[in-house]
Amino acid sequence: MKYLIKFRLGKSVFERAIDPRFFIEDLKNLGKAQVKVIKENIPSPEEEPTEEHCFHADVLLETERPKEEILELLEFILEDGVEVEVLEGSEEVKEEKEEKPKGEIPPPLLENYKLETEEILSRLRSSLEELEENPGSSELINDVFRNFHTLKGNTGLVLSYKEDESLRYIHEITHRAETVLQKARDSGIGLTKRQVEILQEIVDRLDDLFIAFTEGREESAEDVFPLLEELGSAEAKKDMVISGEGVSPDISALVNVASQYIPVFRELCSKGEISEEEAEFFRRSLLTLYKLTKELGFEELSKKTKELQNAFGNVDFREFCRSLEEFSVELQKMVDQRSEKKEERKTFDTSRYITKTGYLKVEESTVKDLMDIVGELSVFKEWIYLFAAKLDRVYRVPEASRELKDNIRRFRSLMDSLQRTVLEMRMVPVSTLFERFPKLVRDLSRVLKKKVRLEIEGGETKLDKVIVERIAEPMIHLVRNAIDHGIETPEERERLGKSPEGLVKIRAYQEGGSVIIEVSDDGKGIDVEKVRRKAVEKGLYTEEEISKMSDEEVVQIIFQPGFSTKDQATELSGRGVGMDVVANTVRDLGGDVEVKSEQHLGTTVKLTLPLTLAIRKVLLVKIGNVTFGIPAEDVGEVLKVKREAIKTLKGTKVIYHRDRVLEVEFLAEKLGIKSSVNGTITLLVDNHLSKGVAVDEVVSTIDTVVKPIPDLIATSEEISGITILGDGSVVYILEVLK
Amino acid sequence: MKRALAVDDSATMRNLVKIALEAEGFVVDTAENGKEALELTKRNTYDVVITDINMPVMDGLEFIREFRSTNRTTPVLVLTTETEAKKKEEAKRLGATGWIVKPFKPEDLVKVVKRVVR
């Protein structure tokens, strides 16, 4: 092959930092080349390119390479004045063999892709939530567009390594959605509420596909195409139709059509005689059914429809109706099967809603090790303090002691920031858990036929990652409960004068050393009388006990094992965890759970969770000459009171404080230790102002790693763990204020 | 030693570019958007900049416009898709040296980079 390549380049290439000589060199590498430079005036790096600058040359190239390769090589400058002429040899374009990618995806790329896809889907979810409120915002639309765009690009990249059905769907879906979004963005018209809804559904399905991909499953997403169609056509009213990318008909279309036609068929047949209009209906509906069944490959059904089409008008109407009825029964069967399948897909596999955050790329065990080391270090810090004191008192070198003490300050502040940073590493925003709830709520309301609006507040509140993961399932259960048992059906709500749309609200906020998560609904509330009856029936309480309990106390019974008020276990509540498991999980984490409910107004479940599991603030107290620790988050107040202030009421020691009567417990008595104070007592009061425990004195507050005591050697319920102090002594942690 | 800057809001893309060019002996810096990229180009000199077009904060086109106002010698390659023909033209007009169509494999990228960097 012989080519003549003419370079007639000017200013435009120099403005783009192109050096045409590179291309000449590349051409030389392809074969035998003769270069004739006609005119060369290339600007120096400092020079501004002008019309004066140019590069004109002819290259005569002899090579075996096809023309496309040469064109590709010169791709960047072709439009700037390069011509490729074939002087000898055929110009025939060689059929390019499409390479079917079969390789493996490089692991780092795959890992990146997975992490980023999770992030993209989560961003899409939150942008779409916002768009719901403000469907015209071009900024948000652009956000959504960009995320679809990035996901498409990334998916295409992975696909170029390995074919995968789920990814193929993701690629196609994101491509189509992107096209519509681009138009919405560029036209400035914005999206309709319905379009935002569709996009949310699409994101849900993308999520399903992505999970299928990560699990190596195949999942079909044909159901998304009608949605995409609608997404595009919703916009088409305002704009042009997206170019006809033949959307394959979906089975759901047939299901829809069939379930609409069958009742009409039956009604018309029952009449015995039909009008011309009705006859036209038969003809049209049979044609539609024929087309759909044929396209979808339902051979039998399509053949039958054809027969019916032929029979109509040619045979006796009653006979036609008999055949039609036979056919309808068959069609109905198919429809039922399909809808069953659809339902099946919507059953609740909780794992689908539990987000694993993708940001922490460190092995969790490493962070835990680091945490332990920091814990030990902080213990060591205490030791240095003690040593400084010892230097002065025991070894009698006060100068050294002072110098050490001065420098400890710096050490301590470094230690503190180290501790904070490590703690921070374990903290993730609760939004990582919350972001799946919109989908959960949408899915549940669909299945349960309820209208529910979800409000989320405080997603930025941070919690220990382990805690977030552990409460995922209980949270799902609470949301599910709120919708299943709390929110009434739209009809019932209207009858009660409520808005037909129920409200489920999830709220997170920090309160002192704890994070509070509330799940509330404005549904029917808990029937307290029913709980009382059930509690007695189940033998949890006697008639007498229950009659003495306040309503507030009674509703808490729902957290007890073996309690369930729902008369009939529904499909949803029948599986998974119960309220007792919710309570257990939260308490195991050192948290607490509480429910408030008012009939017809709704229910609120409040989870109180520790910020972190790793390090706890502990109040060191002395009783006699023994030191104990009390978790600081349990302590609401520390009071100094005169012994006389403590009264005896019906055999119980109490104290009046802030207009409340607090039960007082003397730890010394309880633990059998001789107290060393008599005049003034130090009282620790709990967070609810319900009880106080008396100790001799409060020594200090420390941040420390609390180690649980193995069950085997735990002898008392009150001792929840141990911690080791700087001097090596072991301190028991008492949970006396829980 | 050659130095490259990869600009993309997608970590997957950024890393792909980084991995591909590092294998060729480049030192690769990355930026998540045009603004970050501009900051970096003010501090460092690059032999090539590879940038996405659609990015938050400052997109690729805006970046090229700004960058070219002070630099006419560093090649800039844009990452585009088949559907972005108009954007590609716009990028070229603003001073993009060349382009590479997504999805691409590392070897494709290296081939294109070698066309503009010596």
Give a short account of the largest sheet of chain B. Answer: 5 strands, parallel
Q: What portion of residues of chain B belong to β-strands?
A: 15-25%
The largest chain-to-chain contact, stated as pair and per-chain residue counts, equals: A-B, 37 and 34 residues
Number of domains of chain A: 5
CATH class of chain B: Alpha Beta
Radius of gyration over C-alpha positions of chain B, nearest whole angstrom: 12 Å
Helix content of chain B: 40-55%
CATH topology of the largest domain in chain A: Heat Shock Protein 90
What would you give as the CATH superfamily of chain B? Response regulator
Radius of gyration of chain A: 37 Å
- Tell me how many strands of chain B there are: 5
Order of helices and strands of chain B: EHEHEHEHEH
Helix proportion of residues of chain A, in percent?
Answer: 40-55%
Structural class of chain A: alpha+beta
**Would you report the number of β strands of chain A?**
23
Summarize the structure.
Chain A is α+β, with helices and mostly antiparallel strands. By secondary structure, chain B is α/β, with parallel strands linked by helices.
